[in-house]
Amino acid sequence: MGQAYSCITCFPSSSLSKDPRHLQRQHNIPDLEMNDSGSPTFLPLSPCATPTTTTTATSTPNSVARIPANLLNHTLDQPTQWLQLSPEISYNQNYSPLEMALSRQHRGSGFDVPGAVHSVTTPRLDKEMQTDAKLVIIMVGLPARGKSYIVKKLRRYLNWLQYETKVFNVGNLRRECESEHEQSAKFFDPDNAELKGIRDKLALDVLENLIKWLKDGGRVAIHDATNSTIERRALLLKRLRQEPQIRVLLLESLCTDERILERNFRLKLLGPDYRNRPAAEALADFKSRVANYEKAYQPIGDWEEERDIQYCKLINVGKKVIACNISGYLSGQCVFYLMNFNLAERQIFLTRHGQSTDNVTGHIGGDADLSPSGKKYAEALSKFIKEQRVQFALDLVHEQHEREEIWKSKGLEPLEKTDGARTPEELMKAKAEAVCNSQFIVWTSMLKRAMSTAAYFDPDEYDIKHIRFLNEINASICEGMTYEEISNVYPDEYNMRKQNKLFYRYPGIGGESYMDVIHRTQSMIIELERMSQSCLIITHRVVMRILLGYLTDMSQKEMPHMDVPMHTVFEVRPKPYGNEILKWRYIEHLDKFVQDH
Ligand code: F6P
User: Fold this and answer.
1) Which among 129, 306, 324, 375 has the fewest CB atoms less than 10 Å away?
2) 312 an active-site residue?
3) The predicted structure's pLDDT at residue 182
4) Residue 409: how many other CB atoms lie within 10 Å
């Protein structure tokens, strides 16, 4: 038999879900199509869409494993059917390596977490060919829809989870290669076949670079361009079809909020295409470039759905999210992340707990309480945070005022319109008061030294939570020892950790690695991105490095060695162009915080 069938089944007419595509997705059944009589048929496992043969639900392959349908009872209300799988395909029959890889690709869930999941492969199966081994995210959307902002964040998150991720921006290549063409709105005219050809070529060239990078070991590559027509997307998808180990996710950013749009348009005036042109002229040119794209714009929709292409649409930077056909672990992770962020201006403070009695003696781990110096820090911390909240409100008002002055000097209308009843000054004051009085969250670990550091925060004023995920790394058999003792008693362990701190896991019950701590703090990052309030996180050295590693986009090599001294507060202010980081050191004898530059 020359075909590899991954799965053959019948769907009862009384099935709870009448739509076989729904069942197909629920049970990860590949390539199901309906034949003329309405029964599902199955395509052979071929990377290309045109099958030479199809089989109907009544066909049976040579060797099948039978799984009782009661495993599927939640979807089949008459458990009389059998789901038949053929797990032996890869081993027993005469398939080419490509067919075997594809059979795995279609059957696997792609669940892979660096440092926590080990996939068992056969010597005959190329490890790189597992489902979801590589992911290409193709961005779609008109200019100024926040695409670059979204891809930067997504790249940072995936890299933090240790999936090597890179953004390939077509605009940058355009600016490098096409400087001889005037890069004005005319260049983007969809009716000019020659210029359209140049832009398509640029997009394909970037795709080639991206594929090469993935083949050299990268994991997730993001194609950052407008890709705003079906024709363009089909061009990219056709090329990617030749790479069976690569999965594709289309990610569209739409924006209907006029205020966000106008702000994005103006940010473009400060960017590389327009920086040196008079503002009013540049704004008019950019709006006409957008209008050119709008003429030909085809949002993701039926064309993609008919082809079962997985996609996600983000509307107004994540306010509304539509996900379709999402299959594969990595794509699911991306969509979940994208569902959880917002553009609120806020402060995120991070600090280690105040000095503990174990810190004084150099013992790691444990659950000691604060030393006298640690208690002093705790008291000073609550006063400092209060002052910084007021300062932040003033800074926001000041920044907004400065921005308006820039627009004014460029001859543009103010961005923040007055509401008629109040002057701009009154509006700014109201904003400052609102920021000052907004809810503020305090998170600590569940260890004594962290909870005691939050003791001076009034629960009537602050929303305080103690969270186990923020506990320090568990050093298991090394808990309570000094580093010197560890190097004497467990010299091999000591050296192994030195060589690869990120993946090294302390031996013994509950022992953890940095990677383990990344996984347990993943939900903290998602929550941090989801919430719009300011917050203070009081935690420990490893967790600080990991959270700051995410917030400052630090490489995996640097992150486990980052300097996070005691009695130091890091303040993060999320901005449209990235996070701003401020660092404050507590000077005990002066009982005050000073900024570290
Ligand atoms: O010494 C304080 C501490 O938080 C220990 O509890 C923890 O094991 C250690 O720092 C982690 O730092 P590193 O990963 O550099 O050993």
Assistant:
1) 306
2) no
3) 55
4) 9
The predicted pLDDT at position 108 comes to: 54
257 annotated as belonging to a binding site for a ligand: no
Q: How confident is the model at residue 93 (pLDDT cuts 50, 70, 90)?
A: very low
The rounded distance, in Å, linking the Cα atoms of 490 and 591 is 40
pLDDT of residue 137: 98
SS3 586: strand
d(CA 106, CA 31): 9
Whole-number pLDDT of residue 364: 98
pLDDT at 67 over 50: no
pLDDT, greater one: 401 or 123? 401
Pocket of ligand 1 (CB under 6 A): 364-365, 472-473, 475, 540-542
The residue contributing the CA closest to ligand 1 atom 2 is: 364
The full length of the chain comes to 597
CA distances from 301 to 312, 315, 373 (A): 10, 14, 61
Q: What is the pLDDT of residues 239-256, one digit of tens each?
A: 999 998 899 999 999 998
The CA 501 to ligand 1 mean position distance, Å, reads 11
How remote is the CA of residue 474 from the centroid of ligand 1, in Å? 9
* Structure tokens, 560: 């486990």
- Given a contact cutoff of 8 angstroms between Cβ atoms, the answer to whether 206 and 168 are in contact is yes
Catalytic residue among 10, 540, 567, 571: 540
In the annotation, is 181 catalytic? Answer: no
Percentage of the residues of the chain whose pLDDT score is greater than 70: 76
Task: Residue 319: name the closest of 264, 263, 226, 255 by CA.
Answer: 255
Among candidate residues 132, 224, 345, 493, the one labeled active-site is 224
Atom index in ligand 1 nearest the CA of residue 514 equals 14
Q: pLDDT tier at 181 (50, 70, 90 boundaries)?
A: low
Among the options 132, 472, 479, 571, which is catalytic? 472
Overall pTM surpassing 0.85 (yes/no) = no
First-to-last alpha carbon distance for the chain, in angstroms, is 70
Residue 94, pLDDT > 60, answer: no
Cβ proximity of 300 and 321 under 8 Å = no
d(CA 235, CA 251): 16
DSSP, residue by residue, 537-581: EEE-HHHHHHHHHHHTT--TTTGGG----TTEEEEEEEETTEEEE
Q: By the 8 A CB rule, do 517 and 546 touch? A: yes
Look at 102-111, 157-166, 189-198 and tell me which has the smallest mean pLDDT: 102-111
Q: Assess whether pLDDT exceeds 70 at residue 90.
A: no
Cβ–Cβ < 8 Å for 131, 111: no
Nearest CA, atom 4, ligand 1: 541
Average pLDDT score over the chain: 80
Across 382-525, the runs of DSSP E, i.e. the strands, are 440-444, 463-466
d(CA 246, CA 239): 11
- 353 annotated to bind ligand: yes
- Strand 220-224, strand 165-169: pairing: parallel
Question: What per-residue confidence (pLDDT) applies to 35?
Answer: 33
Cβ of 589: how many Cβ atoms within 10 Å?
5
Give the number of other Cβ atoms within 10 Å of residue 292's Cβ. 20
> Which ligand 1 atom is the nearest neighbour of the CA of 363?
1
> HSE on the CB side for 524, CA within 13 Å?
31
